[in-house]
Design brief:
5-stranded parallel beta sheet, homodimer, alpha/beta
Chain lengths: 500, 500
C-alpha cells in the first residue's frame, strides 16, 4: 500500500520541509521506506488557527450531523481493508489477528459515540422551571447544558495504534463533543497515522464539516508537543503514554497564562490481590489465566498486572511456581519499539537490585521474555520503588505475612488505573476490607477477573488517582469520556427559540 | 454574645498560642474586642491528620446519615438566633436584613444538599449489565459510582460571611459528598466563623459523625493557606475570593508532587449587553433596575456587572445618564474591609487613567460612592486593562459603533462568571449572535435580567472559563457542585452484597 506522507492541515495535505524521519520495523529492526517530515513551527500555528476558526461552525453542528461524521470515519477505516492492518503490522509487529480485533474495537467505539449523540441525553440537560409567583422574588427558568470547550490537542499511544491513536477514543469523544482536534501523530507508527488521518479528513469533507475540524501533524521531537500545549488557542489536552511524557505536558499546561486541563493517562502497576481461598480453589487453572493476562500483547497494556499480592503460605508459593511455568512457556511477540524493549530490560534489572527481590523465572540472555520477581510485603512497604511500572510481560509477586500487610499495601500504593481482587466466598470479609481501601486508589475495581481488557461501554472508568492519570475525575474510555471536552453553561430566562 | 476564640480541631477547641489578631468594625474603623490566634504549624498538621483519619469512617456513612448531619447544621445555625446576625454585622457592616436573607439562603442550601442525598440519584450510578453469552468474550457487569476524594481544604469569601463561608456551599457540598473539611476561617469575620464553626462541630457530634470530619483554623497570614494546600493529605481545594489569592493557591497545588484540583472562583466583570430596542423600550425603569444591580451589596458581589455595552446612539447616552442619576442617588453601605475600600478607590483611579476613559458620575472626595466611567469599544479592544475587575459599586459603560464591535468585545473578553443580554424582540437576531459568542466565555448566560442574585438550584452554574475560575468544568453553587469532591470508580463483576 503506497503511503504519501504529509501534514494533514484540515482538508489540505501539506508537503512539509521539516526534519525527516522513518519508522522502524520492530521485527527486522530496519527502517521502513516512507520518509516523514516533522511539522514546522509555521505549520503548527497554521493548523491551530485553522482549527480555532472551524470551532464556531463546528460547535453549532447538530448532534445528528456530528453522529454522521463519526459513522463516516468508521466506514472509511473499514474501507481501507486489510492493507491497513499490514501497514500497522510493519510498524508495530502486533499480530494481524490482534490488529483486526483492535480495528473492530475502534470502529465500534466511533459508532458508540455516534449513537450517544443521537440519544439526546448526552448533554445532561438540567431544568429548574420558572417560579413566577415565588416570594420574595420570582425565579426565572434556568437550564444547564454542556458546551464544547474548544480546540483539543491529542497525543496517541504506541501500544494501541488504532484504538488509542488517531481515530481512537480521545478523538472520537472530542469530535462528538463538538471540539476540533489537532492530533500529534505517533512517530512509531506514522504510516498508520497517515492512513487513518486521511480517513478522518475525508469523512469530514464528505459530511460537510468545516475545514479544520480535524488536523494531524507528524513529529518526533518534544518541541512539537510543547508548541501544541502552550498555544493559547488550544483549550484541552488528551494524552496516553508514559508518566514522563504525560507529566511534562501537564507541567506546561498548568504554567500557561490561561491554564488548561490535561487528561494524561500514564499507566500503573494494576495490583491483583489473590486471597487464600481463591488461590486454593483456582489452582493451576487460575495461574494459567493470570499468566495470560500478564503476557497479553507482550504485556504492553496500561492495565497490565505488574504487581500481584499473596498471603505467604504453601499454596501461594505453589501458585507462583505454576504461574512461572505458564509464563515461561508463553511465546511473546516482539515489543513495539526499541525504546520499550530497552526500558523493559533495564526495568527488570532495576527491580532485581531492590532489597529482597528474587527472580522466580530464569532470565535468559537476549530475547524479551516474560518474567516474575518475588519479594515480601515488608520490603515493598519499605521501598516504594517496587511500585514503579515495568512496561512489558512481567509481574512482581508480593508475599504478605498477614491480611494487615495486604491492607497496608493497598493503603500505601500510589494511584492506579485498576485494582483486582480474587476471592472465594470464604475470602469475602477480607475482600470487602481490601475493596474499601482499593476504591481510594483506583479508577476500576475488578473481582475474580483480570484488569487487561477495557470494555468500551457507558459505565467504564479508565482513569484513576495520580500518578495513574493527571485528572482522576474523568475516564478516557467509555461514553462519559465525552465530558472531558465539555463544560456546563446555564441559561437563565432565555426564550426557547434561542436554542434552535 | 460572648465569643470564645479557639481553633476547632474536630471536637476539640484548641486554645492556641499563635500570633494574635483582631477583626475590624468597618463602620467605626475600630478593632473588635475578641482576640483570635493564628493556628500554629503543629495545629495545622494535627488538624489535617485528624481529618484524614476520619475519612475511612466518614466515607462509609450512609447518605441518609450525612443528610441528617447537614440538617443538624442548618438547625444549629438557626438556633443561634439574631445574636449571630449582630456579630456578623459588627464584623462586616452588612445590613441586618441582608444578613437574615443570607442566613436563610445558607440553611436552605444545607437542606437542599440534605434532600439531594436522600433522592438516591446523586451518585450518578451507571450500569452496563453482564452479557454472559457475548462472543468472542463475555461481558461482566460494570457499575460506575461516584466516590469521595478525601480531605478538602476550603477558603471562604469576605463578601458572604454565611453563604460562601464556614457553612456555605463549599462546605455543604464537600460534606455531602463524604469528604472531611478543613476550613480556613476568614480573618475579616473570625467571630462569625467561630460561631458557625462550633455549630458544625456540634452537629457532627450530635449526629455521630467521626471526630475530624470538620475542623476550622484561624489565621491571617498566607503561610496557613500554603500549608493547607501543600499538605499531601489534602485532596482538593475550594476557594472564593480574589484572582491573586485563587491563582496563588492554584500554583501551589499544581506544583505538588501529587497535584490536586483547585476550585477557585475569582470573580469577573460580568458584561451586560444592552441592545438598542431594549434600551429604547426599557428607558428609565431599566436604567434604575440596572443601577440597583450595580450597587446591590455595595457592588461587592462576584457577579456584579462591572461592564455594560451599548450601541453608540442618542438613546444609549440618555440611558447612561439616567443610570448615573439613579446611581448617584443610591446610598451604599460601607465596604467590607479597609483593603476592599482602598482597592475600590485605586481601581477607579486606575481605570480613569486608561486611554479614552471619561467619568460619567462626579467623583466626590472621600466617601465610597457608586461610579460610572464610559469609553468606546475601540478603546476597550485596544486596552485589555479595561476588562480588569473593580470590586465595588461601579460599572464601565462601553459604547460600540456597530454590532460588529459588540461581537468583538464578546470574543475578546477573558472568561466570565456571567454574561447578560438585554434584548427586545427586534434585537433577537443580534442577541443570538451575541449569545453564541458569550456562551464560549461564561458560566451563566442571562437574558433580560441581571447577573446579581445566584439561584441555589440544580441547574445553576456559578463558574466559567479562566480567569473567572481555575476550573471551568464545575460550578460552586447548586447541587452539581457536589461533583467537585467526587470521582467516578467503576466496579467490574462485584457481587451486589459488597455494596452494603
Amino acid at each position: 500500500m503506497e503511503i504519501v506522507s504529509s501534514q494533514i492541515i484540515g482538508y489540505r495535505n501539506a508537503q512539509s520541509n521539516g526534519a525527516t524521519f522513518h519508522a522502524l520495523n520492530p521485527l527486522t529492526g530496519m527502517l521502513l521506506p516512507t520518509a516523514f517530515q516533522e511539522a514546522t513551527p509555521t505549520e503548527i500555528v497554521e493548523t491551530i488557527v485553522l482549527a480555532h476558526k472551524s470551532f464556531p461552525a463546528y460547535r453549532k453542528t447538530t448532534a445528528v450531523r456530528r453522529s454522521l461524521f463519526l459513522e463516516a470515519i468508521a466506514a472509511n477505516l473499514e474501507a481501507l481493508g486489510d492493507d491497513l492492518l499490514q501497514v500497522i503490522h510493519e510498524e508495530t509487529a502486533l499480530p494481524i489477528a490482534r490488529l483486526a480485533g483492535e480495528r473492530s474495537r475502534t470502529t465500534s467505539q466511533l459508532r458508540l459515540f455516534a449513537r450517544l449523540l443521537l440519544d439526546g441525553n448526552w448533554n445532561k440537560k438540567i431544568v429548574d422551571e420558572a417560579l413566577p409567583d415565588r416570594k420574595p422574588v420570582a425565579r426565572p427558568e434556568i437550564i444547564q447544558l454542556q458546551t464544547p470547550i474548544g480546540v483539543v490537542a491529542i497525543f496517541g499511544a504506541s501500544n494501541f495504534p488504532l484504538a488509542f491513536s488517531v481515530a481512537g477514543g480521545d478523538t472520537a469523544s472530542a469530535l462528538a463533543a463538538g471540539c476540533p482536534v489537532v492530533f500529534k501523530a505517533h512517530p512509531a507508527h506514522p504510516a498508520t497515522c497517515q492512513l487513518v488521518g486521511r480517513s478522518i479528513a475525508k469523512a469530514a469533507l464528505d459530511t460537510g464539516m468545516p475545514d479544520g475540524v480535524f488536523s494531524m501533524l507528524h513529529g518526533f521531537s518534544h518541541e512539537l508537543g510543547g508548541m501544541l500545549v502552550t498555544n493559547p488557542l488550544i483549550k484541552a489536552v488528551a494524552f496516553t503514554g508514559s508518566y514522563k511524557g504525560g507529566k511534562a505536558l501537564y507541567d506546561l499546561a498548568v504554567r500557561r497564562k490561561e491554564p488548561i486541563p490535561v487528561y494524561a493517562e500514564m499507566g500503573s502497576v494494576n495490583p491483583v490481590f489473590f486471597l487464600p481461598e481463591a488461590v486454593k480453589q483456582g489452582g493451576e487453572a487460575l495461574a494459567k489465566q493470570f499468566a495470560q493476562s500478564v503476557t497479553l500483547g507482550s504485556g504492553q497494556f496500561c492495565t497490565n498486572p505488574g504487581l500481584s499480592v499473596f498471603l505467604n503460605n504453601r499454596e501461594s508459593k505453589l501458585f507462583i511456581q505454576k504461574l512461572a511455568d505458564a509464563m515461561s512457556a508463553t511465546e511473546v511477540h516482539p515489543l513495539l519499539t526499541k525504546g520499550i524493549a530497552e526500558a523493559y530490560e533495564t526495568g527488570i534489572e532495576r527491580e532485581m537490585t531492590l532489597p529482597g527481590a528474587t527472580a522466580v523465572t530464569k532470565k535468559t540472555e537476549t530475547r524479551i521474555q516474560p518474567f516474575i520477581l518475588s519479594t515480601s510485603a515488608k520490603q515493598v512497604l519499605q521501598h516504594s520503588d517496587y511500585f514503579e511500572e515495568v512496561f512489558g510481560p512481567s509481574t512482581l509477586a508480593v508475599l504478605a505475612d498477614d491480611y494487615n500487610e495486604m491492607y497496608q499495601l493497598a493503603e500505601r500504593m500510589p494511584g492506579q488505573l485498576t485494582g483486582t481482587i480474587h476471592a472465594a466466598e470464604n475470602d469475602y470479609r477480607e475482600a470487602k476490607e481490601l475493596m474499601d481501601r482499593l476504591t481510594q486508589k483506583v479508577g476500576r475495581l475488578v473481582m475474580n477477573g483480570f484488569p487487561t481488557g477495557v470494555e468500551v461501554c457507558h459505565a467504564m472508568v479508565h482513569g484513576g488517582p495520580f500518578p495513574a492519570t493527571t485528572d482522576s475525575r474523568v475516564t478516557s474510555v467509555g461514553t462519559t469520556s465525552i465530558y472531558r471536552f465539555t463544560r456546563p453553561v446555564c441559561y437563565q430566562n432565555i426564550p426557547s427559540d434561542f436554542f434552535n
